[in-house]
Amino acid sequence: MARVRKPGAPLGDGLPPPTRGPEGTQLAALLSARRFRLGAGAERVAKNLLAHGGEIAADAAAWIGAVRPPPDAPSLSLGEHAGTLGPSSFGFLNNVGGVAALDAPLPALPRRGGLALLVPRRDALPDVVPLALARGLGVSWIISTGDGDPAEALAFLAADPLTSSIAIKLGASASGATLRQVLGAKPSVVWGGDSLCRAVARRAGALVVDGVDEWLARAALYHAGVEPGGAVEVLVLGGGRAFVDAEVRAAALDAEVRAVDERAPDELTAALARAREAARAVVLVAGGPPILPTENHAGDGPRLLPADLRHPEQLRALLRALALPPPAADDKPKRVTVDKERLAWVHEHAESDLNDHLAKALLKAYGVRVSKQGARSTPTAAAEFAKEKIGLPVVIACGAVERTASTVPDVKRIASLLLQDAGENPSVIVREFFPEVPRARARVTHEKTLGFALRVGEACALLPLTRADALELAAATAARRAADQR
Count of alpha carbons within 13 Å of 228, Cβ hemisphere only? Predict the structure, then answer.
């Protein structure tokens, strides 16, 4: 299901207001420049500037090259040295202003639109201009930050009035701390980055994806002004209706599939008129150009999402994106009831590190269920505690040795044996028994400028958890393969 979104409107609720752009910075001066000085290694940039827009001038303020850039100039570093963009940037395309300072293949300029592409170095993904051309994306900017932090470029795009949405590919230099300051001002889709960057992106309201096909599919939905949640009609231009119908069912998308003869333009016009009357978003599928429409209808008409059947993965990614539920209306962290007396007791007795007992008391103060356990110094006391306070079966532990007891006599017998070898001040731990099921170890860490984060395996989420965060962590646990996934 999909619905039409007004151009520039954010997805979901609760996103922060737009961030003020980096006016007066070297990055703003570089990206707004039309004249450039070129250093060594900028031969392809020179060709693209001359062919598609921009000027080359020896007295220009902005500098581009693969050698060490001037320290006092807005610079685009194609090489290993740090610059305003870079190191290892492949430049930028100001598609609205017509400036192609790009050290990458540029067969033609993409269509103009409100989508910005923010990417790292060139080897992080396929060449982006051919990708944008193949998908028919309407682009405002393409900016390569190389191995530099993308936060300042993201702030620039967030403030740019001609950019309505942003597709971001994060590289190794992205930082969750700096992303938090700028991400979320406009609808964004984020691919890549470490687990903390992805957690920050989810908290900011951005869509987080795992591959290039899904990244481009989300970008195409932004470009067309469509978000999941409304009616979809799939028009197949030419052959392939049965194939497309099977892909629609595989994606669990509730959509009607119609075949349209590509040799009869009136059929396409009539199909679009019916879709307009039904207020549907339309996915147009074809064998490829030139019969594939590229322009969206104005007003409240159907939005066209081209999908080239020569590249089935493009169709599949679009269908999966359209089949997702609409963004949650309210995914804000929920407040929990805190046991203030128990929490105060933990603070009173805590030292630099929490021991097992204090850690469990802290979790209980926030309403988390923790295992029941206690230390006992005699077999009789252990049996009474197991029977009256915990319930059988129980685990009896002494040091690294653990035994399971299912009856009261078992508790006494095992406790007696373990206490004999316990040394001075002997005692055993009687602990609640949990059946063998898939488990996960969760760690709480404090991230600088971001607060507390919860980590499960390689997954990470900021605290307090939203529903999206909880689902991300749950997907990282082995419990997702268990019969009972609660």
Answer: 20
Per DSSP, the three-state class of 457 is coil
Query: For 319-344, how does the pLDDT look when each residue is reduced to its tens digit (9 = 90+)?
Result: 999 998 776 655 565 677 888 898 88
**182 φ, ψ to 5°?**
-130, -15
* Residue 235, token pair as written in the block: 């028009």
pLDDT tens-digit map of 360-419: 888 888 888 888 888 899 999 999 999 999 999 999 998 888 999 999 999 999 999 999
For the sheet containing 373-376, what is the strand order?
A: 373-376, 428-432, 394-398, 401-405
User: Measured between alpha carbons, how far is 303 from 4 in angstroms, rounded to an integer?
Assistant: 7
Q: In what order do the strands lie in the sheet with 232-237?
A: 255-260, 232-237, 281-286, 304-308
Closest CA to 162 of 95, 93, 84: 95
Distance in angstroms (rounded) separating the CA atoms of residues 85 and 143: 9
Output the CA–CA distances (angstroms, integers) from residue 333 to 456, 464, 475, in the order listed. Answer: 19, 6, 19
Rounded (10°) CA dihedral 61, 66, 70, 73: 30
